[in-house]
Amino acid sequence: MASVFADFRRVLDVRGRTLQAIRRFFADRNFLEVETPVRIPAPALEPHIDAEPSGDRFLRTSPELHMKRLLAQGLDRIFQMGPCFRRNERGRLHRPEFALLEWYRRGADYLDMLVDAKALIGFVFETVLGRTAIVYNGTPIEVMPVWERRTVEEMFRAHAGWNPLTSCDDARFSLDLVEKVEPALPRDRPAVLKDYPIRAAALARCRPGPPPAAERWELYIGGLELAGAFSELTDHAEQRARFEACARARAAAGRAVYPLDEAFLSALEQGLPPCGGAALGVDRLVMLLAGCSDIGEARPGAD
Amino acid sequence: MYSASDLRKGLKIEIDGAPYVITDFNFVKPGKGAAIYTCKLKNLATGATMTRAYRNNDKVDQPQLTEKRLHYSYCNGADYVFLDENFEEIVIAGDVMGDSKRFMVENISVDVLFHNGRPIEVTLPNFVEKAIVYTEPGVRGDTATNVLKPAKVEGGYELQVPLFINQGDTIKIDTRTGEYVDRVSVRK
Q: Which of A61, A100, A178 is the best substitution to test chain B (most B C-beta atoms within 10 A)?
């Protein structure tokens, strides 16, 4: 009993110091901490993310649209940490309620956000643990060597035998990503997967082809998908078209269809400056720092 | 038919006509991607293991499984003959019996799992009683249970027993571990 309590307290201590370190990192870099609504009328339309209804509204699946509205109003460096909700997501790395960090930077693209992410990870590990080497699930990991970047195209060609940038079969993409590509990423250091099929990045800017790709990366540490970022899409007509296509696809698949966030779309129309945005799973970061193999252990006191 | 969201640890499913049990299960979802259900599976007939991933819309077959309580009657070469509640004989091949063979005792009840009418798995009671057919003579007065010696029971199974056990004694064996539990009766 005593040791269970000791562990409960130890994880809470790591978690608390992680939150403090994240706040200090952004405060030191002149990012403004913002709070946007948790109950919202129009969650972002994504092909595979379902929102939890809450009365006549929905619990946010991410704070993305509201934070971009703040950028459109003239803020240039903002971050937010708080709970987000995704319906029916429960597994060793998933909970229907989880803590998400998002930050946005005016004038940045997705690779600038990767520089931020690396500085943040290094700072948090040094502040919380006093070192950047850990052993996670039995594997020694150094988190601050050169972060290898691999494109989705090269990894899929090498390990799954096809190129999702030229012919994207949505369901097969996720299956091969989980079964073939992610296991081939290095485990003893961070790995970055970048340049995604456009269908897999509803809110990202595309770089011209051939073949065109969405400017998006995902960061993996110790087999955990820890963070992701976009060069944000700022073209309102393109964004509306993608939301509408997604709404049709969701309806066809029998999934709930959410109203378009017209306030967000008109903010884009007024002018969202070029910017980068990144999201990081705080619970998963705590898993690495406290040595938890199930995300539930990183959320003491939660269900 | 099951849908992918029905999958969970312990569920029995059918793949290409073979029955499997899910021994490990996880829900994964790459960022912005579709839900994937990863399963570790054990073939109930052969014991072979494999992994398989399912997508949201995948359908999974449900096996026709029934369980019957049978009573062991006798051994006929490589075959084991049981009686069901109607005293009908049911023959189970030695390779399906697996390790259970070692612990068969006349009249014990076992639970047998059938897939499409074919026996695939035999579950023994947790404990069986067997007589010792050979062991070195015991040391009089030595009741220590932590010093062990080899012994052979009826049917040929060999295990370690305490020094005070003698040939002809009946002992209780845990069928899950194959280990000695207790002495039931002393040779008259």
A: A178
- A76, A132, B24, B58, B183 from B53: Cα distances, Å: 43, 34, 12, 10, 49
Alpha-carbon span A181 to A165, nearest angstrom: 15
How many domains are there within chain A?
A: 1
- Is A74 within 8 Å of B10 (Cβ atoms)? no
Residues of chain A contacting residue B28, judged by C-beta atoms under 8 Å apart? 91-94, 178
Contact A48/B33, CB-based, under 8 Å?
yes
Contact between residue A101 and residue A83 where contact means Cβ atoms under 8 Å apart: no
Q: Which CATH class is domain B2-60?
A: mainly beta
Which residue type, as a one-letter code, is found at position B133? V
Joined together, the tokens standing for residue A253 give 């698949």
The whole-angstrom separation of Cα A40 and Cα A63 is 10
Residues B69, B71, B75, B80, Cα dihedral to 10°:
-10
Question: Does A43 contact B at CB distance below 8 Å?
Answer: no
DSSP state string for A186-199: -SSS-EEEEEE-GG
Give the angle subtended at the CA of B182 by the CAs of B181 and B188, to the nearest 5°: 145
**CA neighbor of A50 nearest in space, from A264, A260, A256:** A256
Class of domain B127-185: mainly beta
Angle between helices A262-271 and A64-72 (to 10 degrees): 30
- CATH number of residue A12's parent domain: 3.30.930.10
Q: What is the CATH number of domain B65-123?
A: 2.40.50.140
Interface of B with A in 6-45 (CB under 8 A): 26-36, 38
Rg of chain B's alpha carbons, rounded to an integer?
Answer: 22
Q: Where are the domains of chain B?
A: 2-60, 65-123, 127-185
d(CA B188, CA A259): 86
Q: What is the pLDDT of residues A27-74, one digit of tens each?
A: 999 999 999 999 999 999 998 999 999 999 999 999 999 999 999 999
Q: How many residues does chain A have?
A: 303
Domain pair B65-123 / B127-185, same fold: yes
Strand locations in chain A, DSSP E?
32-33, 39-40, 53-54, 57-59, 77-85, 97-106, 133-136, 139-142, 148-151, 191-196, 206-207, 213-221, 224-231, 275-281
CA atoms within 13 A on the CB side of B89: 8
Q: Do the domain assignments include residue A107?
A: yes
pLDDT in tens, B68-127: 999 999 988 889 999 998 999 999 988 888 888 888 888 889 999 999 888 988 999 999
| H-type alpha helices, A98-142 | 110-129
